């Protein structure tokens, strides 16, 4: 019988775990590219629709609000239907609003489609689920963080590439009004292509697909039933809700920065659209290595120490994130602002990787529920940040308040520490996989 992978053979797709690893980060990349494709074009869209600061805040909130609900749903769906079918369905359905936003003719229609696009942000939960069931405990933190980090870079790529793509459309003779619309068709088409590839070339776990395994009477790890059972089991675990808060403070801030960075650089420092897109994109592209680095360090400290070493690492990273965010908020010049953004961005991405390095050890009976609830916390954090900016009416003040809140929320990471008895199953699994 096939077993979980004990290593990442990066340049191979010969085994089910490595096919899942590569296709899941690619699908995640495409989804995040689509999710954040509108953000770097907002200065142009703002001018076309005459948007106020409050309306832009509403759009940013809409972009992440529905993801909370969808993330809560897709985790248990993975336990029931398997990550292969769940991801394929999300890619197909998510492509509809991604393509539809290009047809927007008013603030209201743009807001509606932006709300729908938020659903594709749930791709993260499926990505983390799929790598969690494919890789052994000693390497799962690295696998989760690398797949999530490379996929997350889709947000940064969108910041950098969408203004260039729109510029190319304008150079071809398309007007600016049609240029941003034509550019936004690209990520929708990529999602449809990715749906076909994911369904064709992946399977749910090393042993096969859940539906076929259940039909053959083959037990699924942890006795997963999925659906409401998975959610209820996860919801009764206090560590899930503590990590819900910490993930809101790291990934929630990450999403918030993606949505406001470009327009912040244009309005506050006088950047051009392309320069602002490149600056904002550099924050997202940190995910190419920083999130993976957080997971890798978490695996290393766990091998030298224990499961609580992962918890302590997360606490340290979140303190660094809070301090860096305060520096970014109070940076006087554009150069210092970019340096500060990259500094706190490094800690932010690493904290995200360290959080999901803990997820597979919370409760393997309800991996989907655990991954879904904690993942939803990221979007709750982003929505809360959006409302904070709307209430304060000042982006710089919002960033300062967020810096303090992130540092305070780091205490929740320490609250998620494991007792000796709670660590035994994970320690045993690590020994078997070593």
From TrEMBL:
PROSITE patterns the record matches: MFS
Major subcellular site: membrane
Gene source species: Rugamonas rubra
Pfam entry (one): MFS_1
Domain spans labelled Major facilitator superfamily (MFS) profile: 20-421
Keywords, ordered alphabetically: Membrane, Nitrate assimilation, Transmembrane, Transmembrane helix
Membrane topology: Multi-pass membrane protein
Family in the record: Belongs to the major facilitator superfamily. Nitrate/nitrite porter (TC 2.A.1.8) family.
This protein's name: MFS transporter, NNP family, nitrate/nitrite transporter
Membrane-spanning parts: 20-42, 54-74, 86-104, 110-129, 150-172, 178-199, 240-265, 271-290, 311-329, 335-359, 366-387, 399-418
Localization of this protein: Membrane
Molecular function (Gene Ontology), one example: nitrate transmembrane transporter activity
GO biological process: nitrate assimilation
Taxonomic lineage: Bacteria, Pseudomonadati, Pseudomonadota, Betaproteobacteria, Burkholderiales
InterPro entries for this protein: MFS (IPR011701), MFS_dom (IPR020846), MFS_trans_sf (IPR036259), NO3_transporter (IPR044772)
One GO term describing the cellular component: membrane
């Amino acid at each position: 019988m096939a077993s979980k992978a004990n290593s990442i053979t990066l340049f191979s797709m010969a085994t089910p775990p490595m096919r899942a690893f590569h296709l899941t980060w690619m699908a995640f990349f495409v989804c995040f590219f689509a999710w954040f494709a509108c953000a770097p074009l907002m200065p142009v869209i703002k001018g076309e629709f005459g948007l106020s600061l409050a309306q832009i805040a509403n759009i940013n909130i809409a972009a992440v609000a529905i993801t909370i609900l969808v993330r809560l749903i897709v985790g248990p769906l993975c336990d029931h239907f398997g990550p292969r079918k769940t991801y394929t369905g999300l890619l197909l359905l998510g492509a509809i609003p991604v393509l539809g936003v290009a047809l927007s003719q008013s603030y209201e229609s743009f807001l509606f489609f932006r709300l729908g696009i938020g659903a594709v942000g749930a791709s993260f939960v499926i990505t983390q689920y799929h790598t969690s069931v494919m890789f052994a405990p000693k390497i799962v933190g690295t696998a989760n963080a690398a797949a999530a980090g490379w996929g997350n870079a889709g947000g940064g790529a969108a910041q950098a590439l969408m203004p260039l793509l729109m510029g190319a459309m304008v150079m071809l003779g398309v007007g600016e009004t049609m240029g941003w619309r034509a550019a936004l068709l690209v990520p929708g088409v990529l999602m449809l292509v990715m749906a076909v590839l994911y369904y064709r070339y992946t399977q749910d776990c090393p042993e096969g697909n859940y539906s076929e395994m259940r039909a053959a009477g083959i037990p699924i790890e942890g006795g997963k039933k999925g659906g409401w059972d998975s959610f209820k089991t996860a919801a009764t675990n206090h560590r899930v809700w503590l990590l819900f808060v910490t993930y809101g403070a790291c990934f929630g801030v990450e999403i918030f920065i993606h949505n406001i960075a470009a327009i912040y650089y244009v309005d506050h420092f006088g950047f051009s659209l392309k320069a602002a897109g490149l600056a904002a994109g550099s924050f997202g592209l940190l995910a190419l290595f920083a999130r993976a680095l957080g997971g890798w360090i978490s695996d290393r400290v766990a091998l030298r120490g224990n499961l609580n070493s992962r918890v302590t690492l997360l606490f340290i990273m979140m303190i660094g994130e809070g301090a860096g965010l305060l520096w970014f908020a109070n940076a006087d010049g554009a150069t210092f602002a970019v340096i500060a953004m990259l500094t706190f961005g490094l800690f932010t991405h690493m904290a995200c990787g360290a959080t999901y390095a803990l997820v597979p050890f919370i409760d393997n009976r309800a991996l989907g529920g655990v991954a879904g609830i904690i993942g939803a916390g990221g979007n709750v954090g982003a929505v809360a940040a959006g409302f904070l900016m709307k209430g304060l009416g000042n982006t710089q003040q919002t960033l300062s308040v967020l810096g303090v809140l992130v540092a305070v929320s780091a205490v929740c990471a320490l609250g998620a520490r494991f007792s000796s008895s709670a660590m035994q199953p994970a320690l045993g699994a690590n020994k078997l996989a070593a």
